[in-house]
Each structure stands twice: as C-alpha cells, then as structure tokens.
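Supplementary notes for students who missed Thursday's class. We covered one full example, reproduced here. Read the sequence, then the structure, then the short commentary at the end.
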Amino acid sequence: MRQETKDRSELNSVYGRRRGLEHWQVIAVILAVYDFVAVCGAYFLALLLRFDGVFSAIPQEYIQPYSQFILPCAAGSVLVFFLARMYNSVWRYASYTELVRCFIGSMIASVAHTALITALLKRMPISYYLMGAVFQFALLVIVRFGFRFIQVFKNRHETADPKSKRIMLIGAGNAAQMILRDMTQASEVSNKVVCIIDDNPNKWHRTMDGIPIVGGRDDILSSVEKYNVDEIYLAIPSASAQQKRDILAICNETGCKLKQLPGLYQFVVGEATVSAMKDVSVEDLLGREPIRTDMNEVFEFINGKTVLVTGGGGSIGSELCRQIAAHNPKQLIIFDIYENNAYAIQLELREKYPNLNLETLIGSVRDSRRMFDVFETYRPQVVYHAAAHKHVPLMEDSPCEAIKNNAIGTFKTAYAAMVHGCERFVLISTDKAVNPTNIMGASKRLCEMIIQSFDMKIKAGKAREIPQLFTHDGTENADKDGTGKVFENIKTEFVAVRFGNVLGSNGSVIPIFKKQIEKGGPVTVTHPDIIRYFMTIPEAVSLVMMAGVYAKGGEIFVLDMGSPVKIDTLARNLIKLSGFKPDVDIKIEYTGLRPGEKLYEEKLMAEEGLQKTDNDLIHIGNPIKFDEDVFLGKLEGLMLAAYANREGQIRDLVKDMVSTYQLAGEPAMARQKSA
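Structure (token representation):
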C-alpha cells in the first residue's frame, strides 16, 4: 500500500510538472493576491472611516506609518493565511471548518498588525485596529463563501426540474442537517426537500435551513398531500427497530418511495448523505431488533480448526463461510456441487481475507467415494452440513432426488466424518421437518433421525453397527483391514439446528415478489392466511454457529424465530414500498396451497419439549424416541428405491420410517390446519 501511494505520488509529480500548475493551485495564487490587496484595503478603509470618509482629513502622521507598514504587513498576513491552510480548501463546499480557519488566520494577522505597527512606528487610532480587523475578516470570507451563497440562492429560486422529486425529511436532527447540506451542495441533485417531520413539539412551526418543520408523525399523511411529496427520507439513525417500524408503517400508506440511512455508523463517520440513503426494505417493516450474539465462544471454538462447509455456495452455506472466515480457522473448505456459487464465495473471501487458508472443492454429498477422499485429505474437525434440496414444490415433483441428496447425502457425509476423526457435525435442518406434509420436510426429518442414530450408536460404543451405504463398489470401505479398529475411540458429536425461512435466501418469497412487481404483477400468494417465521441470513447463521458450540451430541437445537409473519401482509408491504397500491396498481392473486404446503410451519413437534441453553434464543428439543436399529436397517432399502427412481413407492417407504409424515389427503393434515 505504501509503495502504491509512493508510485502514485511520483506519477502525479511528473504529470504536474508536465502540465504546470493545477487548477486549484492557480486559484490559490489568485486568492493570495486578493488577500494581499484585501489586507491593504481593509486598514485603509478603517483609517478613512475614522476620519468620516474624507481622505484629505487624514493627518499625515497616520498616513506615513500606514504607508511604510502596510505592504510588508500584507505579505506577512498572506504567510499566516497559508499556515492556517486557507488556500487548500475546495471553496465550493466551504463549511464551518473553513470559516473557523478564516477567523483564526485573520485574528492572528490582526493582532500581529496591531502589535508591530504600534511598537515599531506609531500608535494608531483604536478604531483603526478594530475596524481594520473587521474589514479584513469580512473581505476574506466574502470572496471564499460568495460562490457557495450564490449557488444556494440559485438552487432555491431556480425553476424546478420536472424530473426532480419533492422530498419529505423525517427527523430534524444532525443527520437531517447533513443531508440537507449535501443536497444543497450537490448541484447535480435537483431533488428538493419541501418539509420536515419531527416528533419533538419544540421544533414544530420552525425551520431548518429554510425548510419548514411541519409537525410530528401524525402529520405525515396530511403533509404528503399538502406538499405533493414524492419521496420520504427517514433520517433518524439512532431510532430503534420498533420506532422505525411504527414510522415506516405510516409512511408506507402514502405510496411515496421510502429511503433511510443504513444506520448510526453512517452518521458517526459523517456519511449522512443522499448517496448513503438506501431503499427501505421489507425487513425494516418487520420491526424487530436484529439478533445480536456474543461470538466470543464461537471464536474460541473455531479458532485454529479445519472447518468444512457442505453446500458452501448457497445462501446459508456462503454466510457460514463468511462468519467462519472471520473467526481465524486453521483452514476453511468450501464444498458444493454448483461451481458458480462456490467460485463467487471463493473470490469474495480471498479478497476480504487474503491470509485465509481456503480450499474450494466441487463434488456431491451423494458420492461416498468423493466424501471419503475429502475427509481423508483435509481431516476437517468441524462440519457444517448445509447441502440440501430445499424447494418444496420441486421436491414434490422429484421425491427420489430429495431422498438421494438430503437423506442419503447426509448419511454418507456423516459416515465419512465419523470414521475420519471429525469432532463435531452440525446438520442444518428446517422447521418443515416438524410434522412434515411434504417430501422435502420428511427428507430433512430423516436427516435429523440419521444424526440422532449416529449419536446413539457412538455413545453406546456400537459405531461399527452403523451400516455403510454404497451404490457402487465399496472401494472406500471404512474397515478395510476387517479389524474394526477404525471404529474405536469414535468421538464425533452429531447435532441438528432447526430454523425457519431466511429473508432474501435463494428461492425465498421476497426475491420472487420483487421480480413479479418489476414485471407489473400479479404477485402470487398461495393463501391469504399463510404464515411463516423469518430471520435474516446473518442472524440465522450466527445462531447456528452458537448452537454448534453448545453441542454435546444428539441434540436438535431450535432457534427462536420470533413472531410469525403473514405472507399476504409481506406481499402488500413490498408492493407499497415499490411505490404502488396493492390490488390497484399491482394485483395480488391467491393460487392455493401447493402440494405438501402448510398454512403454517411449526418449530417443534408436539411430542418434543424444550430445554433452555445459555442463549435465550437457542433451545433444545428432547428427541422423539425411535428404534435406531430398525431405522438404520430400513435406510438401504430406501436408498435403493430412490436410486431406482421408484417414485410411486418412495413416499410410502418414507412414511414407514417417519411416523410424523402425513401424506397428502390424510386426516392429520386437516387436524394440523385446524390447530
């Protein structure tokens, strides 16, 4: 970085010599000449004013010392102004800082003038000293701030651009003032703030930079109509999520486009500008505080370990990789079958963490030989298993693929982890595994049962009884020598983490709704009463990693997703945020529940209770008891049926293994909906 800066400096130096003075340097020279003349003129005006503006009335005893002293004094003053950095500013954007510099430089020059002319030549009239200092400061400031004053006046009185937007600013604090200043200075921005809203009654009916503060949040709707507002900017960076939600809920009824500062950080670092404003997202309307976790325990757990993330290019997997990379692992291994996503997260992490020991591997969790090779080569100590098919409707049409990838892929990955000394295996599960009504949810429940079976066998010292599943020659047979030593001292801890939908993930409703709105609608919602639990991707991943720290083996961790959200409300809010009216500009169509889809998702089975952990947002479900020997014995038949693509048989086999799985049309589904 230092070398780059040095090279750039040398290049600029050569380039500057070739071109001569830069434009700003020319302006600085002109300013210096002006300042020289201004100092001479200021004290001459002071002397002239002292004698009623009549030059002939000025005694020679004052003219002579003034004439002898003023030229060297003016030259010295210019030097003082230079040292006060009064020639380095971009005066088009002059602000309080430049005003202070002008005041300090002028004051020092005036004091020096007073002291030197009195000591060396003659005591002048008091008004000469005082008025000379005032005139000097005024002349210095006028020329420097004149351009900006003209620009402000022009911007406020010029004919409005028909393309410009009329803006309401919410918040009359420092952040709002910074935004107003930025809009005034940026001549290319023709948008205009026409009114300001603030809940502090002491500010009502007053102005900020000439803009009226018209009232509190109760006046938003009427003021939007009165001032013909097109866009609303929320400039209260310190507001809580709940406060923002309440304000934005009102703003969302106006049909105006909404923007806000991303957060308090932008204000603190002085980035409260128009360009820093971001569109209000539907997440902001959920109105809950972001989940903050103390990641110190995670840092201690990850630090110095080799970590494997399967499905590392997906929504959850890539965020896992980001957070793991930030916690100083010995090595991070990204494993994914889709090379584009894997390559994207690889580039991102290599740019952000150049010293990270990173490996990116392509392969399928279905391929036990590939999984054995990965674990044999890299010996990961911690595995986050995020690889899965997740789309409910697609898996209903391809149930065998759900079983191959989700259930059998999890089994093969878990087996390879167990026999290669992995310390902890964390399965990323879903709330759709609770009383599943679709094959995707049932396949994830199978995944949970698989890791529970592994845990039970390991704790019982019977790891060798876990079958090794093959769909080809078992060249990667774990017990190659037949002695069973590979199964001795198995200590792998298997756990699952279950949570609901994540905002913005691949295939989630919000990106789909946004695309439908961009096309002009309609926005499709399966049912007006359907609800889902939501969490942001970083929040979910942080809690997944925390749950991995708490693991002792066999647990199903359940993340607190807060209150459920109605999908219909989510769609309507998103339409409003896009500046349209639901059912007027953009139609909402109800398409009916898709095969296997629930009206609501449960976080926990009825048979499971909840245990607390040290984190109030992470709970442990008591495992439902099942016969792991019978379960493991049926897995090979399930695998063979899936690989034979016997779709007509696969659901019945899954139903036989997952007692809580309710096939479409069964009475239990109606019971779930009524609950």
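Commentary. The radius of gyration is 36 Å. The longest strand covers residues 424-430. If anything here is unclear, bring it to office hours.
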